Structures are given as C-alpha cells and as structure tokens.
Amino acid sequence: MVVTGGASGIGRALCVRFAAEGATVTVADIDEAGARATEALIAAAGGTAQAVRCDVSREADIVALVEVAETAFGPIDLFCSNAGVAAGGGPEAPDEDWARSWAVNTMAHVWAARAVLPGMVARGQGYLLQTASAAGLLTNIGTAPYSVTKHAAVGLAEWLAITYGDAGIKVSCLCPQGVRTNMLMGSTDDPAGAVVLASGDLLEPEQVADAVVVGLAEERFLILPHPIVADYMQAKVSDYDRWLGGMRRLQARLRATLQANPQANPQSTPQATPQP
Ligand SMILES: NC(=O)c1ccc[n+]([C@@H]2O[C@H](COP(=O)([O-])OP(=O)(O)OC[C@H]3O[C@@H](n4cnc5c(N)ncnc54)[C@H](O)[C@@H]3O)[C@@H](O)[C@H]2O)c1
Fold this sequence. Notes:
Blueprint: E1 2-4, H1 9-20, E2 24-29, H2 32-44, E3 48-53, H3 59-73, E4 78-81, H4 95-123, E5 126-131, H5 144-164, E6 169-174, H6 182-185, H7 191-198, H8 205-217, E7 222-223, H9 228-238, H10 240-260
Helix pairs in contact: 1-2, 1-8, 3-4, 4-5, 9-10
Nicotinamide-adenine-dinucleotide is lined by residues 4-5, 7-11, 29-31, 34, 54-57, 82-85, 104, 131, 133, 176, 178-179, 181-184, 196.
C-alpha cells in the first residue's frame, strides 16, 4: 500500500497502523526526513516499509512513486491519497495559495487515480482512500481555498466510486473534523483553525487510523471519525438556508470571542458548533 503525507499526523498513523496489520507500506511525503522517520518507526516494530520523497503537487512525482512502490512491493492494493495543505482567507487569498490548494488537495487525487486505476481495473480489484475533510462536506469558516478544494476532493471520490465500483474498485473518502496534527495545531491562532478547535472533539491521529481500518473493512464510502459530522450534514441538506444562518451565527460568535480576547482558547468558546 501507499500513503501520501505519511511523514506526519494522520498519514503517519495510517502507515504505522496498516504496517502493524501486516501491510508493506510505501511512505510518501515531500518531507523526506519525516517519511524516513515513519519508515524507521515501522521497522522498529517489525514491519516493512520504504520511504519515498514525493511532491504530490507534481504528477510526475506521483507516477514515479507508483513505480517505486510496485517495484518494491508488487501491485498496489490500497492507495491512500492523504497529503493536504491548509491556506487561509477568501477570494482575496493569493493565487499561489489557491493553486497549491488545488494541486495538493484535489489534483493529487486525480493524478493518483490516473496512475493506479489502469492496473487496478486490469486486476479487477483495488482500493482508493482519499483524505478530504469535514470541510469538504460542510465548510470551514475562514478558509475558502481549503473548503473549496476539499469539496472538490469529495466530488471526485463520489465520481470514482460510481464510475469504477462495478469494475471492482472500492473508494472511501475520509472526512475528519479536528485532529491533533501539525496542520491543525499550527493554525490555532487563525480563524480557520480556531473554528475547527471550537467545533467538536479533537481526535488523535491514531483514533482516525482506527476509524479508517473499520471503514475500509466495512467498505464504507464516507468515513467519519467524528460521527457528529453526519448530523451536521443532515441539518445542511434538510434546510440549507437555516444551516447557512447557523454558520453565520457561529462565525459572528467566533469573531466576537477572538476580538474580545485575542488570546482566548477557542476550545473553551461556548456553543461553537457548526450547525444552527
Ligand atoms: N488535522 C485535522 O484537523 C484535519 C481535519 C480534516 C482533514 N485533514 C486532512 O488530513 C490530511 C493529513 O493532514 P494532517 O492533519 O495529518 O496534517 P500534517 O500536517 O500532520 O500532515 C500532512 C502531511 O502532508 C505532507 N504534504 C504537504 N504537502 C505535500 C506535498 N506537496 N507532497 C507530499 N506531501 C505533502 C506534509 O509534509 C505532512 O507530512 C490532510 O489532507 C488534511 O487536509 C486534517
């Protein structure tokens, strides 16, 4: 199996957990030292892994990654396209932030599917796991580039599940809310990170890996380590306008809290849940 973003956070937890289950793991990341550290963790526990430097915002790197993985461990049965980046702001955010978000959060999944699907279809089996986010089902206040590109990732996963399901290809889409990783803990001072911290339980990456193992075993399309996200989705689809109103009120509460006390711990912000 292959995991992108395997140097850290959720990706590392997936690598370690699947290696413990007996998988041979190709740990891919732009952070080569971090990928090697994950490889070492797996080796120390008696597992088998190889670290590969890969920038998933470049299709050529993903093509090369697939070749290296298959040369070492044979056909890829599970490709976890998990690397992601966060960028704050709205339409005014710099084009570079939008472009990086599209490349890493959306196009990397397209390029991974393009690289592995022909082999999987020929074998009549294969599993694609895409890490999107609850931000791709609901929205993440304070960050349009992240929310929009994660919505696109969910749309792609849906499309792949529908189009390739009858060819034996399974697709799951992982949509966590807050997880204690470098990405989230590095953004607690900005509104986008603050609202995630304020909106529900913060899970450890290992808990997300547990949810993935169960979700893949059950062949669930949508893997929600925070089950409350399903309730938020239901609130959204049952009355979109009411849900938007609730999100605006949440945004106003968050702004007021942060303005009154810029040092406020958003986790203690009252009633900050992303639904009306
Ligand atoms: N932490 C959360 O609260 C949360 C919530 C929902 C979804 N997610 C998603 O989970 C996934 C993993 O993030 P995380 O929270 O573990 O954060 P993280 O920062 O710990 O891990 C992200 C990894 O992706 C790698 N990466 C970034 N750009 C890359 C690139 N161009 N090529 C290859 N690797 C690259 C980083 O080096 C890092 O190792 C992301 O897709 C993220 O959007 C995270």
